[in-house]
Amino acid sequence: MTVLPLPPLLLQLALGVVLAAPELREENAVVPPAPAAPTPALRAAPLADVQAMMMEAVSCSPPDEERAMKRLFLTNTSVTCNDGSPAGSAGSRRWLVLLEGGWYCHDTRSCHHRWQRLRHLMTSRLWPDQRNVGGILSPVPEENPYSWNANHVLVPYCSSDSWSGTSPAPTPGETFSFMGALIVQEVVRDLAAKGWLSNDSHVLLAGTSAGGTGVMLNVDGVQELVRALGLPRVSVRGLVDSGWFLDRPPFSPGAVAGPGAGPGLGRALTAAGALRQGMALWRARVPPACAARHRTDPWRCYFGYRLYPTVKAPLFLFQWLFDEAQMTADNVGAPVSKQQWDFIHEMGDSFRTTFSNVSAVFAPACIAHTVLTKRDWAAVRVGRVSLPAALRCWDNRLSADSPMEAPERRRGGSRKHKKGDGGGRVPCPTRHVEMCSWPQCNHSCPKLHNPFTGEEMNFIAVLKSFGLDMLSVANALGIDIHTLNNMDPEELLQLLTAS
Ligand SMILES: *[C@@H]1O[C@H](CO)[C@@H](O)[C@H](O)[C@H]1NC(C)=O
Ligand SMILES: *[C@@H]1O[C@H](CO)[C@@H](O)[C@H](O)[C@H]1NC(C)=O
Ligand SMILES: *[C@@H]1O[C@H](CO)[C@@H](O)[C@H](O)[C@H]1NC(C)=O
Ligand SMILES: *[C@@H]1O[C@H](CO)[C@@H](O)[C@H](O)[C@H]1NC(C)=O
């Protein structure tokens, strides 16, 4: 398991396959908008170009590249990435639709900053023709025991709006478009138009990080859309990976608005402030049921625990109890003080509390962010249950409830976790929340790796990567550095927190 002890945006960078493609560097260099001045939006490629690209993707694919997902642009070319380039999906097999993440930008300044640093999250012009994506999108059974034989559709994130925007470019005074909610809908429309969906299809809308939030925001809309498209019996479900954020007060006042805000940007903003601005900029669409509950504060609908009770489609929630993106958003910093450790400790408790009404949840006590597209995602466990096994239990329960259930049937209350399975079946629970309270406390956490060297890191190394100064810790504790470096992590944690 590769877990990067880094803010999620760097994680996205590390995964950005385009960064290695030499021919794309030139393209990168061709469009250097000045950071301060408004960036002119790129125009959408002429239709002929887009069609040529699709042809290419279809006819020139190497047959041997079994793992590769091919790039496909949306049919509706007026639904675009931030810069007006066509949005799309890299599709090859069947109906797991995965929304990628990468935080968001919330105002002109943060979006231009993002355009400078993270352009691949704003335009499809840098997308390669093919991508290899592992984990739950892998076609290899050993890597993906849960869904190796499903159709896989990867929808790269290029709208910077947590998949909630409906703003076409360019609006007066704004360079970029924000069409995340429309991109999700167009992906489904295209799947239906190509005849790839039928009444017995199951669509699992999955997403990582901001994509996970996007799942909760869009899953009921997708169910409605397939019904409107004449496929009333397609079942639509959601799988949320690391997109369940908390809006508890941050560790330090004036917390950053989130990793996407970048250094020095939005520093004075809370998540609420950033989301308020973002919602206006994106012309955000949140589910009507949630908006109705939070009429004066619709930004609250970006927080899973508030959104979840209003979602009708079945949802499975994966969340690390010590989510790195949450730690970054809370501005907790390198844990060197008791206050910081207490805050992190309480974060785990807060996550657990918000899970109490969630019927299908998997929450290991690890420091990490996202899981689904990591190559050894299947090794993640809570107790003795692996994540793929828990997902299978969820599928079984849903199909046992009703093989082709209409979403209405679920409304009054199958939400609550049913104790036991009844009927003398082998228990197959769908709630798995680690109870031990420290990060990495149960030794079943993914191995941590240094993102730059790939080297495995132990827990102490992770603490160091958060900025823990071991020498001053050793001095403070009155022990030598060698002893400290070789100390059992749990012992060390106890030392660090006892005062
Ligand atoms: C394309 O999407 C836009 C935005 O949702 C919509 O207004 C338009 O009708 C769509 N065009 C087609 C041909 O479906
Ligand atoms: C799906 O089922 C509905 C009725 O249940 C039917 O009207 C529709 O034609 C079916 N669509 C397909 C593509 O089979
Ligand atoms: C769980 O549901 C109950 C009843 O609807 C509600 O009172 C409670 O606040 C919910 N708990 C959480 C953590 O959302
Ligand atoms: C660690 O996991 C095991 C199950 O494998 C569980 O029995 C145990 O209580 C957990 N440890 C703690 C400290 O929660």
From TrEMBL:
GO terms for molecular function: hydrolase activity. Residues 1-20 form the signal peptide. Keywords: Signal. InterPro entries: PAE/NOTUM (IPR004963). Residues 402-426 are annotated as: Disordered. It comes from the Eukaryota. Pfam families: PAE (PF03283). Belongs to the pectinacetylesterase family. Notum subfamily. This is Palmitoleoyl-protein carboxylesterase NOTUM.
